[in-house]
Amino acid sequence: MSNNIVIVGAGVSGLTVAYILSQDQNNKVTVLAKHMPGDYDIEYASPWAGANYMPVGKGGSDHQAWETATWPALRDLTENHPEAGIHFRDTLIYNRTKDQGSATGQWFSELTQANPWYEDVVPDFEAMPQERLAPGIDNGQKFTSVCINTAIYLPWLVGQCVKNGAVFKRAVLKHIADAADAHNSGQKADVVVNCTGLSSKTLGGVEDEKLYPARGQIVIVRNDPGPMVSVSGTDDGDDEALYIMTRAAGGGTILGGSYQKHNWDALPDPNLATRIMKRAIAASPSLVGKGQGIEGLDIIRHGVGLRPLRDGGPRIEREVVNGVNLVHNYGHGGFGYQASFGCAEAAVSLVKEALQSKLRAKL
């Protein structure tokens, strides 16, 4: 007996769930989304992400478990599927104790710990000796991570799903229960998986008031500084950030950023962009030629994305709305990629529970 499943949302969370579910030929998967890979819209966060693996989950939490479970999947894709647009990068993390109370410092608090839980997860972990740290840096670490070219990876996920028989359809829903009637077979879906990110704040039947944006602004340049770099905070503002990452397969280098909670502004701020570029050059002078400032940066474009933050963390749970079996998987903030497989596996387990429950009800 086949299982008719509708997934709403084609960001990294929805596509990863679809990728896993479509590998079982008993599952007939339809993905509904307003925005698809190739679109660049403020409502669609995934294309704007860096994206990389820099764990920020609190030790001992579900978040830690999701990120721990995601690393092997990303490593496997990097090693065995170069067409997915992921590559390994040396990664440098720097912590300034004075940043810990800021919005950015709280976001990065687990990442920048002197003895982080993820030292046993990522390869080549090394605590930097104090003599190698710049003045003002209290501790630092180096390890091997990955950086993802989202413009390649998201379409790759779509392609894998299509190869597995999944069907993709554009749709705008007013109510989440309406998705059950949009399965490609024409039959009612057995389960609907809600992966609509920040749109779950206004989507009928969900309307999650715990959701809010954390605005991120980036500059994408052609310059390549080498290692990925992240710092716990900046001196330019409580909600400004410093990170540098070069995407795989010619995807350019991301210079960031900001972490502006409850800010919905879709337009890049030119003053913030200037600060972002100056911070990046100060942290990685190899970005530009000797003695050059921001004029040495070869800019591809400026970008703004809205991270889907949620009070209490992501919502990965089951419920029934208007007689429709729902599984939610949204609210991943700024860690959607690096927790994508762990969260998707948790959601898939709930889908299986819902299918078993429906089967027992029929019996």
UniProtKB/TrEMBL annotation:
<keyword id="KW-0560">Oxidoreductase</keyword>
<keyword id="KW-0576">Peroxisome</keyword>
<feature type="binding site">
    <location>
        <position position="196"/>
    </location>
    <ligand>
        <name>FAD</name>
    </ligand>
</feature>
<dbReference type="InterPro" id="IPR023209">
    <property type="entry name" value="DAO"/>
</dbReference>
<protein>
    <recommendedName>
        <fullName>D-amino-acid oxidase</fullName>
        <ecNumber>1.4.3.3</ecNumber>
    </recommendedName>
</protein>
<dbReference type="GO" id="GO:0019478">
    <property type="term" value="P:D-amino acid catabolic process"/>
</dbReference>
<feature type="binding site">
    <location>
        <position position="334"/>
    </location>
    <ligand>
        <name>D-dopa</name>
    </ligand>
</feature>
<feature type="domain" description="FAD dependent oxidoreductase">
    <location>
        <begin position="5"/>
        <end position="348"/>
    </location>
</feature>
<keyword id="KW-0274">FAD</keyword>
<dbReference type="GO" id="GO:0003884">
    <property type="term" value="F:D-amino-acid oxidase activity"/>
</dbReference>
<keyword id="KW-0285">Flavoprotein</keyword>
<dbReference type="GO" id="GO:0005782">
    <property type="term" value="C:peroxisomal matrix"/>
</dbReference>
<dbReference type="InterPro" id="IPR006181">
    <property type="entry name" value="D-amino_acid_oxidase_CS"/>
</dbReference>
<dbReference type="Pfam" id="PF01266">
    <property type="entry name" value="DAO"/>
</dbReference>
<comment type="similarity">
    <text>Belongs to the DAMOX/DASOX family.</text>
</comment>
<dbReference type="InterPro" id="IPR006076">
    <property type="entry name" value="FAD-dep_OxRdtase"/>
</dbReference>
<dbReference type="GO" id="GO:0071949">
    <property type="term" value="F:FAD binding"/>
</dbReference>
